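Predict fold of Alpha/beta hydrolase; 267 aa.
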Amino acid sequence: MRPVHVGDRIDGGTYVDVAGQTLWHFSDGNPQGAPTVLLHGIFASAASWGAQVPDFLDAGLRLFLPERPGHGHSPDVDGDFTCASIVARTIAYLESVVGRPANLVGWADGAAIALVVARDRPDLVNRLVYVGGYLNSGGRQTDRFVELVLNRNPTTVEYLRTHHDATSPDGPEHFSVVYDKTIRMLSTEPDYAVADFADVRAPTLVVVADRGLVRMEHALDIVRTLPNARLAVLPGTHILPVEAPELFNPLVLSFLAADPPTEWLPE
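Predicted 3D structure, encoded as C-alpha cells:
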C-alpha cells in the first residue's frame, strides 16, 4: 500500500509492539527488495521522509519508517529521551519487525543512532547512510533553529506544538512533557567520540549540507575514521533531505545499489 500524504504526514501505517512498547511505523515496498529503515531525528517523524518514500519505493526497496515514542503517531513512554534508549529500541525493532539485516538511513541525531547500531550490532546492518548528523557538541555549528528551540522561542514552540498535536495519541496537553524531554536530550546528546567508531565496517555514505548544522571538519573526521566511508556534500543546502530531494534521492539510491568501491593503487 502506497503511503497517503496528508499535508506533512504519512498515513497508512500501523502500530507494532517493540520490546513491550507500542510504536507506529510505516512499511511498504517490494517484499524481496533490500530492507531499508529510515530513522528520523528529534521533533520529527516518519513524515520527514515524505520526499524520499515515492522514489525509494519505485527503486524496489522494502521500506520501514518507525516513529520514536512521543513523536508522530507513537505514544510517549515514561522517562527521559536518551540515545541509549533509542539505540536499544532501534535494535529491538530491527530484530522483531524487520527480521533481517537492513540498510539504515539516519537523519540528524537519527544518523548518530544508526551509526551506534552499526557499531554495536553489525550483524543487523548492511549499509549505512549518515545524513546531517553530529556525534558530539563539537561537531555542531551554531544554528538559529537549535538556539530558538533551546531558548523556547514562542513562535518556534508553537510551530512544533502544531506538528505534535496533528498526530500524537497523547493529546495536546502532553506536548510540554515531550518538549521538556527533548530539550534535555538536545542539550547533552549525542555525545560520542568519533574514534569510538573506527571498527564500523559497514559501507557508509556521509551526507552533509554545505550550509548545514554539521561542521565540515567533523564530517571529514567521521569519514576518515570509518574504514569504508565516503563523503557527499550537497551544495547550496541547509536542511537535508527535504530541501533537495532531486539531488539526495538518486545519490542515496545509487549508493545502496552499488558494488563496494574498488581501490586503485599505482605499481
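The beta strands are 4-6, 9-11, 14-18, 21-29, 35-39, 62-66, 102-107, 125-131, 204-209, 229-234.
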